[in-house]
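New to this. Explain these tokens.
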Amino acid sequence: MHRLRLTKRTFLLGGLLAGAALALVGLTRPFSGAGTGPIETPHLTLGYLKQTDAAPIIVAKELGYFAAEGLDVTLEPQSDIGVLEARLLSGALDGSQAPVGLPLATRIGYGARADLIVPLILGTNGNAVTLSREIWKQIRPALATDPDGQVSLPIRADVLSGTNHNVARPAPRLGFAVVSELSSHNYQLRYWLAAGGIRPGYYTASDKAGTAGAQIDIWPVPAARMTATLEAGTIQGFAAGEPWNQSAAVLDQGVPVISSSAIRPGGAEKAFVISQAFATRNPNTTLALVRALIRASIWLDANNGENREVAARMLAAPEYVGISASVIALSLSGHSRGSGDTERLLKEPSRFFRGSAGIPFYSEATWYLTQMRRWGQIATYKHDAWYDETARAVFRPALYLQAAHQLVAAGRAKSSDFDWQDGSNRHQPDAAAIDGKIFDARQPNAYLDQFEIGLKGRETASDRIKLQN
């Protein structure tokens, strides 16, 4: 029998509160639900990035959900997405937290070519855009306010045109940082900028930085170095996952001005990624991993987030995110701390399970593919059917739903908590994106045709740049 081994630190986390204690009930035996078989590969190494989106992986380890499935999991932090990709593709990692763009890019051969799949989404609403204090001071007088004198939200990117870094001039240009060109932060930042009439630039064969035809610069910077780079003045803003936006605010180096939920509500941001080969060789292990991560996600969202203070203390451990638990708690709750009128409630807290946040809907993969096409990472026109076929090759909602059925059968989850549709569609968000547009995954090319900024139809990046000049 596999017995749960909790670390000494886990028991020191303030007693784990009553909710966490309840979560441990029945975890000393491996899962034995109908339709499962023996674990093929019990000893696993999973990668993660030092962000709050890694919470389901860390919670599944710390609360023993992996152990309950008969899995002996080692967690390995990754210094950046490039390292993560290399270790995942080499097989050094059996699975990993990763940006949604990574498995899509490898599937279509943008960079390395590999067959990676996504059986679970790790979180939504966990990103934000942060501006330097210098830029905030320049734009603050022009911002609309509500009757109480507080800044009206959301803040739109067109206010950046009034800074000393005038986007209409070639220099000095605004510089923003993102973790990777494949990260959700990159696509959300570009969406926000373009919705404000600012061109973020295109990826071309000769410009892998994606700055061709740009009015601003976007550079890759590891998330943990964002605040220091902002303080040094090398960049004037960044888009990143939490808790790094909140960290910049607490250190009084930056002002979070818009959350990802206000740019595009409910969008997937981080994925749990494994290789197709791993899933084929290890079907029972794969489902066991997904079951454990679903349970962790349920715990994170239970009872309006009552477990999040405990989760913040788990993530604050040096081997995990490694910064103040109070800062992590802010980022999990959706609050932002600054000074004066920069203290604001962002629109939505992070979600891990509520609202079907964990299901890898095909439509989410399609949205990311449209953004890769919009900015030139997909260089040429693709038919609507291509988007659907590519989405279905990478996102695997059937695996998520199979694991969910097994949890319900075992009495470890409630059927009413899940959206049992087949993954071909997702519920559209209650609100449109910041530019008023609503995404329809059935018509990706018609969706792209709506945008004034970005590639559409059969345009290439060089075609679009000529039109701009």
The chain has a mean pLDDT of 88. The first strand starts at residue 43 and ends at 48.
